[in-house]
């Protein structure tokens, strides 16, 4: 592995410590700033940034782990205990914020992690001008201006909330006397293309409140580098030379740390008529936006029949099942189904057509009725098919062969489902019509080893979902460990890995099935398939009744010996039957439903 330290790459000098080096040295390629390294970041065509591959540092991203080969960016951030890409804010840099050393200096000086993805993008409409502001750090910084139709390579930093707060503070956006506002640029005016082919649906930019310095003709002046800029500015203003000296070195030395002198220099730019409009103030809103990358959908056109993947709200009650939430218009276009199959259209067609996850359909009142470009997909389903928010997903109607009746819902409560990843059956269960599940999965389903569960598979061309009832047997640590040692690689491998093939980690719970059962569930030829599993409530009812009927018989014998009247005996029997039914209902609902119970008033 080549040396990716900032020193070895020539990226270790921060303009905050060396003002005349402003804007600092920019990288030549996309990378992940992590500790004192700038790790190479490789785009994956047609995938969002979370799926890009990043080289690992020599010690890996986890303490004590060796780094071998590139891993998905989100996996790297997870291992490093950092904020994932989707919860970060993409910010365009035209100055020192594209310099890794400057970012590291800013963050670590305030005790905040400096792990930041820095991604090269082709941006149209942004030029690099000169800020009408003398910084107490000893330099005159860059500032953007509008250049319609002109494209250039710029770097976009993906900042987490704490990092964004630090950069916001350094730009003074919440200070009434500050110099900058942060705006969210619209993609129709500022096309932004990543090397993966993604057209960003928006990115943030810091816009100077008072404009930029012009070149003498009224047009914004391009920033030529700090030494040359200061030489030109000093040669053009006698007053500036009197206050700041005759050379860039004197300017930087006098300005550094002298806020009063810097304020005088900033006012002088305006007094001498050097300012011009940047053309970007029209994009400033009342409050800076706080939209994260996952909620900024790409501006790319969607494949026919596809939708952008949105996230379901955190507070949404999915009632124990993986769901897809959609508008009334999309539901009507699908035929108002109760269930649907969601599929990842980023996966090559020959494979994505055989990889899908079964979802319960919710027509959401909070989604505009005519919204027809996006649907919200539950997190477990996104993991199941390797989807990132914003990527294209296809949705098609599905139906179960038998719909649950309302009395079952009232008696048992809502069904609790788990979406599980199908693994080829282990030798221990080969040719056995059972499924192997781990202890936690059994407990979440409310069953014990040997109980019957219901598996819902992948629908055929008629849209009907195959359903099987099987005994669920607790798998052993030996079986789990043996499979973890073997699995890895993409969907062409014998035991493919969701991390390698889909870029998702951690994976869904595993269910081991003999290959004959794959056919019964419609999973033939489908690697990394998923199934929905629930307990068999009829089996659980019979199980409870077996125990309670025995107790009922003993109780009735006692009643017969005490009461001589046939009427009272019949009445007592009826009361006992009702009591048994009540107890069975309570036991089943408490065991089969993993529902939180609110204590106290609801917060508003």
Q: How would you briefly describe this protein structure?
A:
This protein has 604 residues and is an alpha+beta fold. It is 29% helix and 24% strand.
| Shape by Cα distribution | elongated
Mean pLDDT, all residues? 87
Low-confidence segments = none
Rg, nearest Å:
31 Å
Helix coverage percent: 25-40%
Kindly name the structural category.
alpha+beta
- Strand-residue proportion: 15-25%
* Count of DSSP strands: 24
Distance between the termini: 54 Å
Number of helices: 18
Largest sheet: 8 strands, antiparallel
Essential attributes:
alpha+beta; eight-stranded antiparallel β-sheet; six-stranded mixed beta barrel; elongated; 29% helix; 24% strand; 604 residues; 24 strands
Descriptive overview:
Helices cover 29% and strands 24% of the residues. It contains 18 helices and 24 strands. Strands 1, 2, 3, 4, 5, 6, 7 and 9 form an eight-stranded antiparallel sheet that branches. The chain has a six-stranded mixed beta barrel with strand order 13-17-14-16-15-18. Strands 19-23-20-22-21-24 form a six-stranded mixed β-barrel. Helix 5 crosses helix 6. The mean pLDDT is 87.
